Amino acid sequence: MPIQILAEDVVAQIAAGEVVERPAAVVKELLENALDAGASNVRISIQGDGRRKIQVSDDGCGIPADEVELAFARHATSKLRETNDLYRIHTLGFRGEALASIASVSQLAITTRHESDNAGTLLRLEGGQVRQRRSVGAPRGTTVTVENLFYNTPARLKFLKSENTEKRQIATIVTRYAMAYPYVRFTLEQDGREAFRTHGSGQLLDVMVNALGLDQIKNMFEVDDTHLNIHVYGYTSAPSYNRSDRSRITLFVNGRWIQDTSLTYAVVQAYHTLLMTGRYPVAVLLINVAPDEVDVNVHPTKAEVRFRDSDAAFSAVQRAVRRAVIEQAQTPTLRGRLSNGNADHVWNPRSEPVQMGMNLKLKDTGQPAIRQHADAPDEDTEIPEGPHGPARPRTLPMLRVIGQVGASYIVAEGPAGLYLIDQHAAHERVLYEQFMAEHAQKEAISQYTLAAQTIQVSPPEARLLEENLPILQELGFEIEPFGPNVFVIRSVPAILADGDPIETLAGIVDDLVQGNKPGQEAIEDRIVLRVCKQAAIKAGQVLGLEQMQGLIRQLERCQSPLTCPHGRPTMIHMSSEQLAREFGRI
Ligand code: ADP
Ligand code: MG
Q1: β-strands 283-288, 249-253: how paired?
Q2: What is the mean pLDDT of residues 436-441?
Q3: Atom of ligand 1 nearest to the CA of 32
């Protein structure tokens, strides 16, 4: 075939393929237009999966009568004038392609009245061609009705997902925008039935209650932090509430939903040592930065953005989430694991937002802590300055040790009820934080010198070990090659003083063998975890009262006392109310 410039309608349909590849994409574009128009009410109504009919109405600024046709021309937009504007985008749209694309593959009607016009305009298009135009009475705002989507591109119809997938996707998109715009009232109607609604209260929490349900909201913590001029706001789950994939981490940048592997990783990373591997948090985060700090023009459907300083964005998100989780994490409770008779207290988002997810409130439990040791009086609310850090608020109350169960669990009492503590997990947490604190301060981790012991490994293991000797050295191991595949251990980190160095090193070698493509940090982390595991008190070890008290005091000092470094819980808490309820007292 000779080269030819394509006809206008062919070009339009090719372009439409990028922007509106499915009904949900039409909903997205129309929603963005409504929001850009400053609407406070947006109503979406869908028939079936949206192919038959999609209608979006808003009470935004409307389109002036003499610009309505223009809105359907390709690359026609009111949101951008020159290239430089691209770097200060305040709107969701800017490419001027959506209306043209949607119109080219559907039968479309728009009724719109601009705030300064007396009458509205009705325009009908078919396959992008204007079929009718007239003046009509209409409220301020715009209603776009898209019917028979892809009627003139039958090939595309074959690629559509199942009707249910599409319906779900549409609901997801509406929910996302509702979260990013809590001041706007959204209504989604599917086949004449109201599927979702928000009230436009301006509170993200209210939207989340509508979107996720009350039960799940109780397990979310508020995030609100500004770092390097990046404001991160939203909700993130308690470590105990998690998922097997990352799909429930929802991110917005300047009101735009985005997919970003790096920022998603920042959220996951914030739960380091708080979640088991393979488990992921649930989060909804609104990230706000100056418009010139982010390039939104890197993706046809604008689902990705590029930050000028992506490291800053990463650390802002990670820090904000980490803080929220560390500050608000609560003891895992027996709630839900016991008989279902114990109804949860009814939670009212308006009257007690700070109570959310907190069964354990340390400050106002009303009861004094029962103390056996007369510690410094301020220990009730604050942990005094210690060798590993400055004074800070307690994350655990003072606990009184009662005894040991099964040589594995410590039974303790606190102001808020009964605690069962896993001695091994708790000690692992204590050792981990001690070790990391020393490491962070670049203190030489004090070593414990032994009568030299040797360990023999297989040739590939020997190579791995040799490669990692510098890391091991930095972490407090002094190990030297000593003949073929034999190493001599001269000293170990101080916390391993009572442990078996050979067994520990064998464990480390196993970990190294199993780790695939580990980076320096990952290796370090694995070694530290192994050391802590080996050094920690084992389950099955009988402990004296003093030992248990010592361990609990150390645990109280930890930043994240509620999980072991592998993310498993260190303790189970049963509140006084739960006890009373279980015994039928209330
Ligand atoms: P873009 O949103 O990228 O500018 P669109 O094709 O989606 O491109 O819309 C073209 C123009 O039509 C917009 O710039 C805006 O001026 C106008 N417009 C579209 N939808 C609406 C609406 N719901 N309310 C007011 N104006 C609208
Ligand atoms: Mg648009």
Answers
A1: parallel
A2: 82
A3: 2
Taking each helix axis from N to C terminus, what angle separates 23-36 and 163-180, rounded to the nearest 10 degrees?
20
Nearest atom, ligand 1, residue 92 CA: 2
In this structure, which residue's CA is closest to atom 23 in ligand 1?
A: 34
Q: Are 245 and 278 in contact (CB under 8 A)?
A: no
pLDDT single digits (tens) 516-566:
655 666 788 889 999 999 999 999 999 999 999 999 999 988 888 888 998
Question: Cβ distance 520 to 471 under 8 Å?
Answer: yes
Instruction: For residue 230, list its beta bridge partners.
Output: 227
Ligand 2 centroid distance, CA of 302 (Å): 11
Residue with the larger pLDDT of the pair 554 and 374: 554
Residues pairing with 133 in the sheet: 123
- With a 6 Å cutoff on the Cβ, whether 63 touches ligand 1 is yes
The β-bridge relationship of strands 249-253 and 392-393 is unpaired
Is the Cα torsion angle 104, 109, 114, 117 positive or negative in sign? positive
- Give the β-pairing of 242-243 and 230-237: unpaired
* Pairwise CA distance, residues 282 & 286, whole Å: 14
Q: What is the pLDDT of residue 160?
A: 80
The C-alpha atoms of residue 516 and residue 501 are separated, in whole angstroms, by: 24
297 lines ligand 1 (CB under 6 A): no
- Model confidence over 279-311: pLDDT tens digits? 899 999 999 999 889 888 777 677 888 999 999
List phi, psi (to 5°) of 413: -120, 140
Distance in angstroms (rounded) separating the CA atoms of residues 78 and 57:
19
Q: Is the pLDDT of residue 67 over 60?
A: yes
State both tokens at 221: 């913590």
Q: Is 120 in the pocket of ligand 1 (CB under 6 A)?
A: no
> Distance between CA 465 and CA 457 in Å, rounded?
9
Answer for the pair 306, 298: CB distance below 8 angstroms, yes or no: yes
Q: CA 122, CA 277: separation in Å to the nearest integer?
A: 56
CA atoms within 13 A on the CB side of 457: 24
Across all residues in the chain, what is the average pLDDT? 84
- Nearest Cα to Cα of residue 502 among 463, 467, 457: 457
46 vs 493: CA distance, rounded Å = 64
H/E element, 486:
strand 486-493
pTM higher than 0.85, yes or no? Answer: no
User: Residue 419 forms beta bridges with which residues?
Assistant: 412, 573
Return all residues near 398 (Cβ < 8 A) that are at least 6 apart: 369, 371, 375, 379, 380, 414, 415, 556
Cα-to-centroid distance, 72 and ligand 1 (Å): 9
